Amino acid sequence: MSADHTRDPCPIVILNDFGGAFAMGVIGGCVWHGIKGFRNSPYGERRIGAISAIKARVPVVGGNFGVWGGLFSTFDCSVKAIRKREDPLNAIIAGFFTGGALAIRGGWRHTRNSAITCACLLGVFEGVGMMFQRYMAWQNKPIAPPLPDQQPLQ
Amino acid sequence: MLSRMLGSQVATAARTIGARQGLRVTTAAAAHGQYQLRYISSSLIRSNDKKKDDKSNSILTDDLLAKAGVDVEEPTKSSANGEQESTTKNESEESSTEDQDGKPRKKRTRQSSTDVKRERAANLFYLGFFATAFGGIGYLARDWEEDEDKELKQNIPNGYSFDLMWKRFNARFSSIFTYFQEPPFPDLLPDSPPEPYKRPLTLVLTLEDFLIHSEWDTKNGWKTAKRPGVDYFLGYLSQYYEIVLFSSNYMMYSEKVVEKLDPLRAYISYQLYKEHCLYKDGAHIKDLSKLNRDISKVLIIENDENSIKLQPENAIKLAPWNGKADDELIKLIPLLEYLATQQIKDVRPVLASFKNKEKISEEFLERTEKLRQEFNKDQEKKGSTNLLNKLLGLPVVKQKFPLDAIHDEGVKNYQFFQKLVKEEEEKLKKQSEMPKETFKLKDIVEGNLPSQEEMMQKQLEKQLEFEKQQAQQASAAVAK
User: Fold this and answer.
1) B197-366 CATH choice from 3.30.40.10, 1.20.120.1730, 3.40.50.970, 3.40.50.1000
2) Which of A3, A143, A145 sits opposite B253 (nearest CB)?
3) Is B149 helix (H, G, I), strand (E, B) or coil?
4) ipTM above 0.90, yes or no
């Protein structure tokens, strides 16, 4: 049983993640390439320049993001299914494989470096998440309820 | 060189042939000579053609390929020496090592200035990385500080021998990870309340697949079901137990479920989550020894073997609920009621007396039935006293089975408590209209948040004020 009820369970969440990552890439790419196209166009054609830059490049950015998200989610689900455990190491292993798989056409060295970098990045994310979780737990430390005859301090 | 010489020879031979043909020598000897010459020349031309083919079967010379960044085997010395000399010399040092003395040359790699820069940066990075790692190891291996954890320091004295340094490093390094594996604070619960409010036992309940069950399907997404009788279970047992909900899920996801289960916080004293578990050997363990309660007075109901690894003798391990309607919760009540009302000093031996924990409620029922029958028999024997009462005209006292009497009392209490809760509910509804304390992001970042206790006190003050206001309004309305 998945712990997180805001997300679908495993095989279907891959599709979700792919779409989510694609949307993220498209939105971010629109901002990025919009500004870039705007700045790189001559005066008088700045708006059309921005739009054409967006049209040309944003689908690619979205696709890249989507492929990353989908692949990561696929690996994450596989790792979960194999390890039968849910902990931060899942994401790190999935990140390792994702980074490696996406760089595999660049040769063995590139694959290795990319996999390690990606795993480190995911490790940092997970570490920060865990620290935040701990902080939240510490913030919401259970406290004794007030006793009925106890007056609140003035 | 050889090929060049051959080429020039052939050229001259061909010229002579042409001249001879022009002369149209008709003598047989001459004809024979001509034939011979032709033969030689054609074979020479043919062989020369072959050489040419060898040299230039591709327009991409090794040189060009190398410039484009493709690794090529160094061309053998025999081919194209003259052309090699005319190639431009490279900037990089490696290419200058090529020699013409017949020694095998090094593999040639051409580097642009950015490549050189990049390599230098990478080298610097590696150097920095190893220096930091080395420094970090040294730092972790230093002598103990005074404010460090005493458990860490145990058995490892100060001093700078290799062995001791390694031990200190090891202890400190692993403590980084154990920090994340232990619950965020040592005592998970505050001290138990003073006597009139104190419950004799603490009941730790798991949430998932015990009180609730979640399912997912493509049509509706996630659905969470309450187990039949859960409200009664919590409401009824809260008079005997300090109920602690210990979820196997993170706070983020379970908090809302708890809010729905007990919106007024009338039944559940505390809730704990996966964050409060001890992580050990790949399992999240609900460590009862960290609850700040007497371990002999704590009971946990769990459906996961791993969660109760540390204190299995305090646990009632049930099969996980699969979401189908059942009366398992109601069946558990008599046993739990019995445990709480008998003033047991230690729950562990009592629990150990049950053979199969998964069917503990049935086993308990069997035992009580036996007792009840014996009790009834005894009562019949004592019937004679009742006869006497009848003769004297006194009302017949029929004694109840003690557990039933306790249950009756419990139900009365429960009903009374429900009334109180309903009254409180209306009050709380009004309070929810009260303005809430808000914090800005700045406060959170700067750590200006008040502690939980302070917040609660503020809330209580506000409540009092609010109640006063309401009373004034009411009196004003009456005066009108």
Assistant:
1) 3.40.50.1000
2) A3
3) coil
4) no
